[in-house]
Amino acid sequence: MSLKKTVDKYMPESAPTSPPPSQTTKVLRSVVAPWQVEVANLFKQLSSTENGLSAVEAAAYLNSEGANTLQEGAPTSVLKIIAAQFKSVMIWVLLGAAVISGVLGDMIDFVVIVAIVVLNAVIGFYQEYKAEKSIAALKNMTAPQAKVKRDGQVIIIPAADIVVGDILMLEAGDLVAADARLLQAASLKITESALTGESESVEKQSNTLLAADAPLGDRDNMVFAGTSVANGAATALVVATAMNTELGQIARLIEDASSSEGTPLQQKLDSFGRILVWFSLAIVTLLFMLGWWRGSPPLELVMSAVSLAVAAVPEGLPTIVTVALALGVMRMSRRSALIRKLPAVEILGSTSVICTDKTGTLTVGQMTVRALCVAEQSFTVTGEGYAPKGEILLNNNPVNVPDTAALQELATLLIGCNNAHLVEEDGHWQVIGDPTEGALLAAAHKVFSEQAGREPSSFEQRLPKQHEIPFDSDRKRSCVIRRLEDGNLRAMVNGAPDVLLQACTRFYTARGVLPLTDADRARIQEQNTVLGQQALRVLGSAYRDLGQQLPADLSAAAIEQDLVFVGLSGMVDPPRAEAKVAVAKCVSAGIRVVMITGDHPHTALAIARDLGIATDTDVVVAGPELDGISEDELARRASTIAVYARVTAAHKLRIVRAWKANGAVVAMTGDGVNDAPAIEGADIGIAMGRSGTEVTKQAADMVITDDNFATIVAAVEEGRGIYSNIRKTLQYLLAGNTGELLLMTLCVIMGLPAPLLPIHLLWINLVTDGLPALCLATDAIDPDVMKQRPRPRDEHIAANNFLGTMFLTGLLTAGVAFAVYFYSLQTGSEELARTKAFTTLVFAELLRAFGARSETKALWRIPLRTNLILAVVVFLVIGLQVWAHHNATLGLFLKTTFLSLEDCVLLLVISTIPLLILELVKLWQNRARQSTAIPIQ
User: Fold this and answer.
1) φ and ψ at 757, to 5 degrees?
2) Marked catalytic residue, from 179, 357, 701, 779
3) Are strands 421-425 and 465-472 parallel, antiparallel or unpaired?
4) Three-state DSSP state, 410
5) Which of 320, 593, 634, 693 would suit a FRET pair with 3, their CA atoms being 20 to 30 Å apart?
6) pTM (predicted TM-score)
7) pLDDT tens digit string along 484-501?
8) Is 357 labeled as catalytic in the residue annotation?
9) Tens digit of pLDDT for each residue in 26-56?
10) CA gap 609, 629 in Å, rounded
11) For the chain, what is the total number of helices (H) and then of strands (E)?
12) Which family does the record assign (predicted)?
């Protein structure tokens, strides 16, 4: 991976930029070879403590040392944005036409052309400047965060606000946001490929190293910015930030250069545009040669040729596409979908399969423990969410917890094997850490009712943590070893009950600890199944006493055996009401929704059926069964499987690849580290903004800030709508240009005078192409867009009768204008005939903008209120055109003559003919389409 990509991935541009190198080198608190310094001395040298910095100290250090962000290149200057507006070849063609007009003494054309160029530049500058600001805002919204300890409390802050002396709290899935010395490490493994190129994760420990010149890869007690936590948990003291990190020092040596090849849609448009330019040049050359052969004045031919070239090529299209995409991205951000990679906007419109996690995406995302089963009794837990307030009931009666030793034993394990923290902000309880652990912690608080509302501050002191074996998707359990008050060590284990039971030989009862018989296992398994069928997520808790000393072998295999099974905790995460509606919308849109979860199969299937993802006849494919299915067989069966349960990271990636092997465009959602490979492998990777780990967010194309499945469906709808708007805008522009070319070509071939002057073509290009096209590009999304089948990813933008409609529209528009022109030549002057043809063409192109809003819907089925700006623009320009025939000054600029109001009304009526014919064609096509339609399954 290149350093530029590494910088973009792990320390993206965000928030305030780092100060210049001259400032970032003036760090007041620094340590030479911090891996060699004892921790106590390190705290002293950095003016920090084990409770972290105070908020006041951190603010002062941030002000003096600068933000923890890599140095960015200078932002695009206003002058560069202005200069960029004059890079287009067509702009220089326009300027050339202005110069020719000036040389010939035609100052009216000169002034009008220059005014049009300046106006285009102003519009383009405004859009680019606005886009720059919008992108900066989005970057700030997606800035990574970090957990730090300040004033003795664990808080979440933007990574940019980290300073030297902060204490980082790290766990699996976190990105390391600064260089830091490890204080404590439990089974910690760090992926350092961003710095060292080593693909294997590196084991870390907190002991002081002796070698001052230890190479980067051997600094086992250090973690570095730009790396990620693959396993375990740790606390670490920040010793370097921003450009003083190892990553920052390398960044100084490399020139930051980047290039953009454009998005797939932009590449298609560029390719289509090049074909259009060459086709237009061929037509212009042909017309020039015909005029030359007929003896037309050379200068008049040059001006006509230049004007036709301008008319033939929609030079405003790139700006319109940019505006459509930018507004689409901003609309998505308002709907809680942050686009991190622009191509995602386009590919979203092609999504045919959404592989989604369950927890927090299809459900509300706040687990609540509803049942505690221990000592052959089942207790009910009241309360909602993470608020540690509620009651413990037995047979609907409150329980006196101090009299229930077994319940206290279970609650101790729920707190002891836990890394989450509950915090109250503005009256709302939130969890810092894993949501499941937060729910278990809240339940434990409810058991210890005298401590309800806060985490027991004495727990860490009474039962200090000695070692930790973090949860991973293969073991499906986590383990923490704590020293009890009597001095003995106890391994506390929480995990999937079916897996955990295999490691248990005894179980906790009201009569004490007894051997675990097969009958007891069956009873616990049955209890687990019953809870699962109630759509509860079930975790088991167990422990093992280890004596006074830590065993020499602290591996999971050695510790997690001969366990004492204590009880079950059943949690509910109810489906979101809006998720059911969103799934139904996916079905109508031809999008398949597949649930992939690590939950129990019964829980997964119950939720899937409730949401409409699975039917009553569908079954669940669990991880062990998936292991026995070959890649080819999985690809064949993928379309028949709606729910996967108990899956690992490898399983998720296999499922995504199986769908892609069938030609599907796959969106994959996730929040955990084990989702990252599948998110990378999917066409659209979607991360959860609230619960997602930083690794997952940085790997994703899109971040859902509300962790809501309905937001994903809304983003797909936006993607489809954006593509539809761009396509219909392109068709509208090209159809107008085609009409102008056909009119001019026909008149030249017939030897008639030019029906349009250069100023007429420029006016049409401005008022009938630019303004209405911009309104079409920002049109409201068709509410029926989600009733269509997904668009193939490789579909050409001119597919599905695009060219046929374009040429028919151009032919009709040119036809009515030519009929008016030819008739007027026979009955009046050339100037009057040209004025009428010009006005007819303007009216016809403006009116057909209403029909261009949909390729399939009739005009009267599209509410005008959904795009009032288009109506205002059309009627204002029609009024301006009529006024031009009654105002001598404007008529002089446009080189038109007087037209009576009756003539204008007559021409307006005639100009409706192309629109009416196109609407009739639309009706005929709809009937033909309905007669051959195949229902979406």
Assistant:
1) -90, 165
2) 357
3) unpaired
4) helix
5) 693
6) 0.60
7) 989 999 999 999 999 999
8) yes
9) 445 677 889 999 999 999 999 899 999 999 9
10) 24
11) 35, 28
12) Belongs to the cation transport ATPase (P-type) (TC 3.A.3) family. Type IIA subfamily.
